[in-house]
Amino acid sequence: MKSSVIILHKKFEGFPTESNFELVQEDVPPLKDGEFLAQAEYVSVDPYMRVFPVEVGKPVGGDQVAKIIESKNEKYPVGKYVVGEFGWRTHTVASETPGSFFNFPPRVLRGYGDLPKSLGLGILGMPGNTAYFGFLRICKPVEGNTVVVSGAAGCVGSTVGQIAKIMKCKVVGITGSDIKGRRLISEFNFDAYVNYKSPNFQHELTEATPDKVDCYFDNVGGEVSSAVLNRMNKFGRVAICGAISTYNNVPGKASEVQTPVKIAHVRMEGFSVTRWRNQWDEGIQQNMEWIRQGNLKYAECISDGFENTAKAFIDLFGAGDRNFGKVVVKV
Ligand SMILES: NC(=O)c1ccc[n+]([C@@H]2O[C@H](COP(=O)([O-])OP(=O)(O)OC[C@H]3O[C@@H](n4cnc5c(N)ncnc54)[C@H](OP(=O)(O)O)[C@@H]3O)[C@@H](O)[C@H]2O)c1
Fold first, then answer.
1. How many CB atoms lie within 10 A of CB 267?
2. Residue 255's pLDDT is what?
3. Pick the residue with more confidence: 255 or 173?
4. Among 211, 169, 218, 203, which residue's Cα sits nearest to residue 189?
5. How far apart are CA 199 and CA 60, in angstroms?
6. Strands ordered across the beta sheet of 232-240
7. How many helices (H) and strands (E) does the chain have?
8. Which of 90, 130, 239, 310 could form a disulfide with 273 if both were Cys (CB 3.0 to 4.6 A apart)?
9. Ligand 1: which of 101, 156, 224, 323 to mutate, judged by most atoms within 8 Å of the beta carbon?
10. φ, ψ for residue 311 (rounded to 5)?
C-alpha cells in the first residue's frame, strides 16, 4: 500500500506558495505489535505551520482525523476515529508515541453523536481549547466587560467571542471582511464588528467601544492591536494568542505600545495552548456541552481533496471573504 504525503519542498520566503510543497508517494510498512494503520478523513491546515515549519524534505506536520483500518493495539480498535498528529498524509502507521509538535498521543474521538468528526480539528480540538483556556484563564472576563477579539471570523476568534457572550460580556469582533463581520453578528451572537481594512478603522473601533475595552484577545498583532491597546480600560487584560499579520515576514508595523499599557495598568500575557495540556478534556467537554445547549456555534470551511491541502493552507493568509471558521481538508 502507498500513502500520499505532502512534504515541504522549499523553505518559506514571505507568503507561502504552491512551490513550497510537493506531493510524493511513500510505501506503508506492515504493522508491528502496538501499532495501527490510520486512514485520513480530514487534514488540518493551521497558521502555526507557517511560523514553525518542518525541515525541508520532511512531511508537513499537523493534526488529522483518521479512521483506524488495521490495528495491533487494543487501545486503538478498527473502526474508531482518532485525532492524531500525523501531518499531511493519507495513511499513517502510528502507535501511542506522542506527536513531535504538540506532544499528544493519538486521541480516540468519543461522545460525538451526530456532530461532525472534523470538529476534532477545530472547536473540539486544539483551536477550541485555545479559545476556551486562553480567553477564560488570561482575559478573566467579568459580566458587563467589553471584549474585543481580532481574527474574529476564524475558529479561535469566533469561539472566543461566543464564550465571551456566554460570560455576559459585550463583544466586538475585528475582521477584514464586511461579509464575515455581518455573519458574526447574525449567526455568532457578536454585538458589533469593525473591519480593519476600513480607512476609518480607528474611528470605527472607537465608535464600537463606547465604554472602551476590558479584555482584548489578540490573534493578529501589528497595527490592529496597537489601535486596540489605545482603547484599554484601567486594569484591562490582553491575551496574546497569535500575530498572523506578521507571519509572512511582513515588516512589523505597530505604534509604540508601552505607554498605553502603562497608563491603563494593562496586563498582557502570551500563551501557547499546550500550557493547559493536563486539563485538555475540560475544554473539549465544555465546548461540546455549549454546542449541544445551542450556546456555541461552529463554522467550517471544507476544502475537497487531499491534493488541495497546500492551497487551503495558503488561503489562510488572504482568501478575502471566503474562509470563515475552521479550515479543514476533506481527504
Ligand atoms: N497560542 C496558541 O496556542 C494558538 C493556538 C491556535 C491558534 N493560534 C493563533 O490564533 C490565531 C487564529 O488561529 P485560527 O486557527 O483561528 O486561524 P484563522 O483565524 O482562521 O486564520 C486565518 C484568518 O486570519 C485572518 N488574517 C490573515 N492574514 C491577516 C492579516 N495580515 N491581518 C489580519 N488578519 C489576517 C484572515 O481573516 P480576515 O478575513 O478577517 O482578515 C484569515 O481568514 C492565529 O494567529 C494562530 O496562529 C494560537
1. 15
2. 82
3. 173
4. 169
5. 38
6. 192-195, 170-175, 146-150, 213-218, 232-240, 267-270
7. 9, 15
8. 130
9. 156
10. -65, -40
| Gap from CA of 80 to ligand 1 centroid (Å) | 31
The third-level CATH classification (topology) of the domain covering 2-122+298-330 is Quinone Oxidoreductase; Chain A, domain 1 (3.90.180)
101 lines ligand 1 (CB under 6 A): no
Each residue of 59-79: pLDDT tens digit? 999 999 999 999 999 999 999
Q: What is the pLDDT of residue 256?
A: 84
Substitution candidate for ligand 1 out of 139, 219, 303 with most atoms within 8 A of CB: 219
For residue 314, is pLDDT > 70?
A: yes
Write down the mean pLDDT value for the chain.
96
pLDDT by residue (tens digit) across 80-99? 999 999 999 999 999 999 98
For residue 197, give the ligand 1 atom closest to its CA: 41
Q: How far is Cα 1 from Cα 90, in angstroms, rounded to an integer?
A: 11
Enumerate the β-bridge partners of residue 44. Answer: 328
Q: Determine the distance separating the centroid of ligand 1 and the alpha carbon of 148, expressed in angstroms.
A: 15
Which residue's CA is minimally distant from atom 39 of ligand 1?
176
Residue-wise pLDDT tens digits, 12-63: 999 999 999 999 999 999 999 999 999 999 999 999 999 999 999 999 999 9
> What is the pLDDT at residue 194?
98
Cell of 31: 504493522
Q: What is the residue-wise DSSP string for 230-254?
A: TTEEEEEEEEE---GGGTT-PPP--
Q: Where in the chain is the domain with CATH 3.90.180.10?
A: 2-122+298-330
What architecture is domain 126-273? 3-Layer(aba) Sandwich (3.40)
User: How far is 5 from 314, CA to CA, in rounded Å?
Assistant: 17
Q: 258 CB contacts (<8 Å, ≥6 apart)? A: none
CA distance linking residue 308 with residue 247, whole number of Å:
21
